From TrEMBL:
PANTHER family: BIFUNCTIONAL CYTOCHROME P450_NADPH--P450 REDUCTASE, NITRIC OXIDE SYNTHASE-RELATED. One of its GO terms (molecular function) is flavin adenine dinucleotide binding. InterPro entries: CysJ-like_FAD-binding, FAD-bd_FR_type, Flavdoxin-like, Flavodoxin/NO_synth, Flavoprot_Pyr_Nucl_cyt_Rdtase, Flavoprotein-like_sf, FNR_nucleotide-bd, NADPH_Cyt_P450_Rdtase_alpha. PROSITE patterns: FAD_FR, FLAVODOXIN_LIKE. The keyword NADP applies. Residues 100-323 form the FAD-binding FR-type domain. Its cofactor is heme; FMN; FAD. Keywords: FAD, Flavoprotein, FMN, NADP, Oxidoreductase. Residues 1-62 form the Flavodoxin-like domain. This is NADPH-ferrihemoprotein reductase.
């Protein structure tokens, strides 16, 4: 008889088809009499806990498989056995991490866009590796290093110092750690594992194996028994628990074997190849909440001109590019660092206009806090492109709504200017949204509401579904 367990990967931005195929497979297998091992798992690539959702589901799956097939397991025994001995020289990190298509690009400049005291947004420019190309709307994936503060905390917790520069790792199974050759302790901690990754149930079980103190065991067991990824602290890491409970005698080799492999991070490119085909820019927010530091954003923030980093261009969804015909108008909805791809879109239109092509005027609806604090690119490029006739600007300032015609958030500005939005809709414009998931939901609801003013709510939903694949594209994060 057939046994099954299904985990579905999808993106909630595609609401019509989200999890449709995994749910169909799951229901069909059950209907046909197959034996269910575990409830349907679902991961949302458009959210901020995709990997955590899978890790939690996977841990439950291994527990079920162990019971079903009488397999005896013991916590960290499932981890590759890593032996460590002190010994030195750097390794090819990208190859070891199985990212062979990433290559070294060069930092040209890195500057702060926001006022002092405001949440930091930065602009960074790179020279691409030879032969690497891109389109406006694509992503640049970068291979970061952990923040130096994370590395310092690891070395302190395991009583290493930077003077111990050489260790040798040997693994009994597949691993993406640098094995069989000398490597620095700080290098392993910095570049090969996700130190700040949210702690998993498997991690907690591993910590329990190396805990003899009754109070610590009781506390860890309580955390394990009440573990809920959605309701728990999404920023608690394995390192946080090791620092909180110093009597856990976890070896460094087990610690690094317990952590996920360092992975590439994707950022929307904020430039157009018509500006410069060999260079790209990124526009990004720097994430920092107490001890929690965004790995990639802090890495990028600390780069300087002349630095080299591993990178690769990744294509975006087919619909998330400027129309090939520049006479098709665009309506752009964004907030915060969601500005990134739209700077590239508008830069492309500006270059086309300067080359003498007929370019339709587009409109940018943009939400931020204050006009003199975080209205990105407003005083230079956006002002210039507005004078050129490429774009009309419709901002919303959450902390100064009186300076944006009484509109606090971007969806408020869209609704206030719904006559304009409706005119664009009738002209066949393409609509784009980039920003956090909650902002994207609010914009979508406002857009459908505008359509519904004329066609009614039910018909508006149907119209939106019809145009979604060709005229309404989204790039949502968080």
């Amino acid at each position: 008889s057939l046994s099954f367990a299904v985990f579905g990967a999808g993106n909630h931005d595609w609401a019509q088809t989200y999890q449709r195929v995994p749910r169909l497979i799951d229901a069909t297998l059950e209907k046909k009499g197959a034996k269910r091992l575990l409830g349907l798992g679902e991961g949302d690539a458009g959210g901020n806990s995709f990997l955590e959702s899978f890790n939690e589901w996977e841990e439950d799956l291994w527990e079920v498989l162990a019971k079903e097939y009488n397999i005896k397991t013991k916590g960290s025994s499932a981890l590759p056995k890593i032996d460590l001995q002190l010994v030195g020289t750097p390794t090819d990190r990208a190859a070891i991490l199985r990212q062979p298509d990433s290559r070294l690009g060069l930092v040209v400049e890195n500057k702060l866009l926001t006022a002092p005291g405001a949440p930091a947004k930065r602009h960074i420019e790179f020279e691409l590796p030879d032969g690497m190309t891109y389109q406006a709307g694509d992503y640049l994936a970068i291979l970061p290093l952990n923040p130096p503060e994370y590395v310092r905390r690891v070395l302190a917790r395991f009583t290493y110092s930077y003077s111990i520069i050489e260790i040798m790792l040997n693994a009994s199974g597949p691993t993406t750690l640098p094995t069989g050759r000398p490597v620095g302790v700080s290098e392993v901690s910095s570049g090969f594992v996700e130190i700040g990754q949210v702690v998993t149930k498997r991690n907690i079980s591993t910590l329990l194996e190396y805990t003899s103190d009754p109070t610590t065991r009781s506390n860890l067991e309580s955390i394990l028994n009440n573990y809920n990824l959605k309701e728990g602290n999404p920023q608690t890491s394995m390192l946080d628990l090791l620092e909180k409970y110093p009597n856990i005698n976890l070896p460094f080799s087990v610690f690094i074997a317990s952590l996920p492999t360092m992975r590439l991070r994707q950022y929307s490119i904020s430039s157009s190849p018509l500006w410069n085909p060999t260079r790209v820019t990124l526009t990004f927010g720097v994430i920092s909440h107490g001890q929690f530091l965004g790995v990639a954003s802090n890495y990028l923030a600390n780069l300087r001109g002349g630095d080299r980093i591993q990178m690769v261009v990744r294509p975006s969804a087919k619909a998330f590019h400027p129309p090939s015909d520049p006479s098709v108008p665009m309506v752009l909805f964004a907030a915060g660092s969601g500005m990134a791809p739209f700077r590239g879109f508008l830069q492309e239109r500006a270059m086309q206009a300067q080359a003498g092509r007929q370019v339709a005027k587009s409109t940018l609806f943009f939400g931020c806090r204050m006009p003199d604090e975080d209205y990105l690119y407003a005083d230079n490029e956006l002002a210039e492109w507005s004078k050129l006739g490429v774009v009309e600007l419709r901002p919303a300032f959450s902390r100064a709504p009186e300076r944006s015609e009484g509109n606090k958030y971007v969806q408020h500005r869209i609704w206030a200017d719904r006559t304009l939005v409706r005119q664009y809709f009738d002209k066949g414009a393409k609509f784009y949204t980039c920003g956090g998931s909650q902002i994207a939901i609010g914009i979508r609801e406002t857009f459908i509401r505008i359509i519904g003013e004329h066609f009614g709510k039910e018909q508006a939903e149907d119209i939106f579904k019809r145009i979604q694949s060709e005229r309404y594209a989204t790039d949502v994060f968080g």
